[in-house]
Amino acid sequence: MNVCIVGTGYVGLVSAACFAEMGNDVVCVDVNPDVVSTLQAGKVHIYEPGLEDMVRRNYAEGRLIFTTSLAEGMERASFVFITVGTPSRPDGSCDLCYVEQVAREIGQNMHKPVIVVDKSTVPVGTADRVRAIIRQELDKRGVNHDFDVVSNPEFLKEGDAVSDFMKPDRVVVGTDNEKSAEYLKTLYAPFARSREKLIVMGVRSAEMTKYAANCMLATKISFINEIANICERVGADVRDVRIGIGSDHRIGYHFIYPGVGYGGSCFPKDVRALINTAHEFSFRPELLEAVDTVNNRQKKRMAERIAEYFAQQGGVSGKTLAVWGLAFKANTDDTREAAALAMIEMLTAQGMRIRAFDPVAGEKVREQLAHNPLVEIVDGQYEAVQGAQALLVVTEWNQFRTPDFERVKSLLTAPILFDGRNLYPPSMMAELGFAYFCVGRPDPA
Ligand code: UDX
């Protein structure tokens, strides 16, 4: 089948490569000529395991084409996927300017029947808005082509995006048009092999499903972080509590790891966007508001404990903290809404120096934080620790899981470790002689 994908971010490029992998002819359109020429040179501008190989192979075999021209992209396409960014406005609402611009251009370039697929995460009602914009553009041109606007939200995790696309838990298709549903079923058949995995529903329900899924997952994380905060105060260990509650199959063990709060491009933005939508409809979503509040607090919790610890030693000003991990989670270079950045901002505002290392996101953060003279991004995890007063682990990269603790101890001025991801057994850390602070356990005496 012929597919056009507009926007080559995480979602667009992964979708394009995976559709091409199944033998479809895919044209990727991006307004940024630098991105297009990078992709044409066989390089991928984002870090996503497995993606570069797949892009390169399908490009070489001619199933994947990159261009800045939507007209070229739509020439033969039966599907046009909208996968452009939907950034947050300062009030938390979703900025649809890129989606609307693409809708206008689709209307200007349509010359045959096509199914337009909204894959960007957009507020409920956007498919109707996209439909109206396209219709308006067709009317301006005085032409009438048969088209449908379908909602097909993505559920890709960064770092696992390729395998999530290839083996999805489900594919949600929102349309009231049976023909569109059949076309999308055919396109997705190689991925959603069992029929039950392809769930067809109304357009607005599909749009809402995406927000409901992300808000549910964000709620699980804020819930366990709230429990962790109480554990710290009452002398319980949240790691045991997680196992204790997870054994109830109605709860389950997954996605209830306490930590530094959720970050990334989806959860924070989507929770705020749904809160905003609810407000627009005169409804106060108190639970979601609390999920967001708890998360904002959690992102700074470890920094607060560091400040409390050093308060007895004249404060953090002039002290140096080694930071392991800057990306919002492991296996990605994404630092959007990353807890590490929130903590660094808070501690440097109090005069603390930071020596940080991340295996992938370091270079990006070096540029982002170039204005802050208290932050140094270094190229090795042990180099970060050299001469620091304490170590803070923020991202759960594998290489931080079993480090050479003796070496860490000898490089730090004192063996103090703050662990935002509960990577190490507290008893082992005590034996090694560390003052070890982790999430959801009382501070060591
Ligand atoms: C998420 C959704 O999982 C995906 O389905 C959606 O399409 C996009 O948003 P992603 O943002 O890539 O994916 O990351 P995910 O692995 O879900 O983690 C989100 C955040 O929650 C990270 O900051 C992670 O560290 C945190 N998290 C996750 C926890 O703190 N505890 C957990 O138990 C799980």
From TrEMBL:
GO MF: NAD binding; UDP-glucose 6-dehydrogenase activity
Entry annotation: catalytic residues: 266
Annotated SUPFAM superfamilies: 6-phosphogluconate dehydrogenase C-terminal domain-like, NAD(P)-binding Rossmann-fold domains, UDP-glucose/GDP-mannose dehydrogenase C-terminal domain
Record bears the keyword NAD: yes
Catalytic activity: UDP-alpha-D-glucose + 2 NAD(+) + H2O = UDP-alpha-D-glucuronate + 2 NADH + 3 H(+)
Residues of the UDP-glucose/GDP-mannose dehydrogenase C-terminal domain: 322-426
Keywords tagged on the record: NAD, Oxidoreductase
Listed GO biological process terms: polysaccharide biosynthetic process; UDP-glucuronate biosynthetic process
UniProt-listed InterPro entries: 6-PGluconate_DH-like_C_sf, NAD(P)-bd_dom_sf, UDP-Glc/GDP-Man, UDP-Glc/GDP-Man_DH_C, UDP-Glc/GDP-Man_DH_C_sf, UDP-Glc/GDP-Man_DH_dimer, UDP-Glc/GDP-Man_DH_N, UDPglc_DH_bac
Binding site for substrate: 155-158, 210, 255-259, 263, 329
Pathway(s): Nucleotide-sugar biosynthesis; UDP-alpha-D-glucuronate biosynthesis; UDP-alpha-D-glucuronate from UDP-alpha-D-glucose: step 1/1
Entries under Pfam families matching the protein: UDPG_MGDP_dh, UDPG_MGDP_dh_C, UDPG_MGDP_dh_N
EC identifiers of the protein: 1.1.1.22
UniProt: NAD(+) binding residues: 30, 86, 121, 158, 269, 336
Function: Catalyzes the conversion of UDP-glucose into UDP-glucuronate, one of the precursors of teichuronic acid.
NCBIfam families for the chain: NDP-sugDHase (TIGR03026)
Family named by the database record: Belongs to the UDP-glucose/GDP-mannose dehydrogenase family.
Protein name stated in the entry: UDP-glucose 6-dehydrogenase
Organism: Desulfovibrio psychrotolerans
Taxonomic placement: Bacteria, Pseudomonadati, Thermodesulfobacteriota, Desulfovibrionia, Desulfovibrionales
